[in-house]
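User: I'm putting together notes for a lab meeting next week and I want to include a structural view of one of the chains we've been expressing. I don't have a solved structure, so I'd like a prediction I can at least talk through. The sequence is below, exactly as it appears in our construct file.
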Amino acid sequence: MRHFFLFLALSYSLLSYSQNKSKDASFVSSNAQTITFYAKDSVLITADTYFLKDIPPTVLLCHQAGFSRGEYIETAKKLND
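Assistant: Thanks for the context. Below is the predicted structure for the 81-residue chain, given as C-alpha cells.
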C-alpha cells in the first residue's frame, strides 16, 4: 500500500519526463511520455503519461498483475477526446 502512494506522489510530480515508444505511433509519439523510477524495494516502476490539453485533469490508471501499461493506450485516447 505504501508503494502505491509513493507511486501516486512520484508519478504526479514526474509527469513531464522522457519520450515513450508504443503501439499507436500517431497518438503516442506526440502525446505520451514514459516515467521510470525505482521503488524502495528496488522494483522498477514504469508509467506512461498522455497530454493533449494545456491544463488537463489528472487520471491515474493502474493495471493489475498479468497486464501491462500498454493496455491503456486506447483508454488514454478516449479520455483526452
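A couple of points you could mention at the meeting. Helices lie at 2-13, 25-31, 73-80. The longest strand covers residues 32-38.

User: Perfect, that's what I needed.
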